[in-house]
Design goal:
- The protein is α+β, with helices and mostly antiparallel strands and 399 residues long.
- The protein folds into 2 domains: 303 residues, YVTN repeat-like/Quinoprotein amine dehydrogenase (Methylamine Dehydrogenase, Chain H), CATH 2.130.10.10; 32 residues, no CATH class.
- 16% of the residues lie in helices and 42% in strands.
- The strands form 7 sheets. The protein has a 4-stranded antiparallel β-sheet with strand order 3-2-1-28, with no helix packed on it.
- The radius of gyration is 38 Å and the shape is globular.
- The N and C termini lie far apart (108 Å).
């Protein structure tokens, strides 16, 4: 399994979960060219698109290994970035949503004005023409990208508190509920609010709660829609049960603010990254830490690829395979280092000593030695009998 990360210095890295190491990295390190938003290409995780602090769009192809600058935009800072089959959708902090041609990113297909202070933007799971966005003092809104002047849903704030004061709104992230036809949306806010909206029912949230001690920065939903994973500004990663409507535990480990969480498309694993410069992978069912990798830079965004588990072989197994290949005559195709290790591995194997049959002369000598030993034993017996007779004679004389 692999996790793709981008950090505040502009580096893009791929991390191997099984090997707990960084496999490769792209782009030059520069804080002025930091990555603000990152997303995969449409139905492919071999390419990522980046929204940079320099107002540029960039594409990184993992197979080509060279970042490609697409175009320069007029955004102040990226609040959202997404790629569809033929469009690149961007949202800036001023609420300007722009649709660009995927094959010619410099050409603007359409644009419309959303929230004035936008903080996040996401496309629907089933319908990529559905767009949800929110921000500071800007509650959830859902738009139809095909008809930019059509606003599908506009949320209302919850009722005033007991002091008759308006509850503040500052949405940090949104997520669409799987298997809901993109009608159910989850939001998290800087004021610790976790809310669920159903555009089929009403404008106000159907559920709202506060369970975190700090601002919630990010949210992701599992593939079955039963759980939500949220990260807050204190470094806590919460597991929220969508059916019981309560927090059922935490993923322990992070010590800095969590900025991004990403779930594996198929397997029950979640990747977490933030200010503590570590990317962590957890098992959602057990909440156990699977791996942790230190990346040196503070992480802005993480993405889980669709790659399945990879079996990592031990050094001993690799040496045995190298030795077998060498014995089968494939040593010419191996590197010099592999040949050397294979030779060392075979040299360390203890060999059994072979038993050689004795020669006839040596066998006869051994038989003669045995006969001599037997003769000596007979002489000793005769001496003992003579001594006993002498003792008897002496006793008779004394009498």
């Amino acid at each position: 399994m692999k996790v793709v990360t981008c950090d505040e210095t502009g580096l893009v890295k791929t991390v191997s979960v099984e090997r707990t190491a960084v496999e490769s990295k792209w782009r030059k390190q520069s804080r002025a060219k930091a990555s603000q938003r990152m997303c995969f290409a449409h139905q492919s995780d071999d390419t990522v698109y980046l929204g940079l602090a320099t107002k540029k769009l960039e594409k990184v192809d993992f197979l080509n290994r060279h970042p490609i600058s697409l175009t320069k935009t007029d955004v102040e800072s990226f609040a959202g970035l997404a790629v569809t089959e033929n469009r690149i959708v961007t949202c800036c902090s001023t609420g300007q949503v722009t649709l660009r041609d995927l094959n010619a990113p410099s050409e603007v297909v359409a644009t419309f004005k959303g929230h004035v202070r936008s903080s996040c933007m996401k496309l629907g799971l089933q319908n990529k023409n559905i767009l949800a966005m929110g921000g500071k003092d800007a509650d959830l809104r859902i738009w139809d990208v095909n008809s930019t002047d059509k606003q599908i849903f506009k949320a209302k704030n919850v009722k005033n508190n007991r002091l008759n004061l308006q509850v503040p709104v500052h949405i940090r992230d949104v997520a669409f509920m799987p298997n809901s036809d993109d009608r159910v949306v989850v939001t998290v806010s800087a004021h610790k609010h976790f809310r669920i909206y159903d555009s089929r029912v009403k404008q106000r949230p159907i559920f709202s709660t506060v369970y975190s001690e700090a601002a919630l920065n990010c949210v992701a939903l599992t593939n079955d829609g039963r759980h939500a994973i949220t990260g807050d500004a204190l470094g806590h990663t919460h597991l929220f049960d969508m059916r019981a409507r309560r927090s059922i535990g935490k993923f322990h480990g992070p010590v800095g603010a969590v900025r991004s969480v990403s779930l594996h498309p198929v397997l029950p694993f979640v990747a977490v990254g933030g200010l503590d410069r570590h990317v962590r992978v957890y098992d959602v069912t057990t909440r156990q830490l699977m791996t942790k990798v230190f990346l040196k830079q503070r992480i802005e965004h993480v993405l889980f690829t669709s790659e399945d588990k990879v079996v990592v072989k031990d050094d001993e197994e690799e040496e045995e395979e190298a030795a077998v290949k060498a014995e089968e005559g494939h040593g010419e195709e191996m590197d010099e280092d592999d040949v050397m290790w294979a030779a060392l591995a075979s040299a360390n194997v203890p060999k059994k000593a072979k038993m050689e049959p004795k020669k006839e002369e040596e066998q006869q000598d051994d038989d003669d030695d045995d006969d001599d030993d037997g003769g000596d034993d007979d002489d000793d017996d005769e001496d003992d009998e003579e001594e006993e007779e002498d003792d008897d004679v002496k006793e008779e004389e004394d009498v």
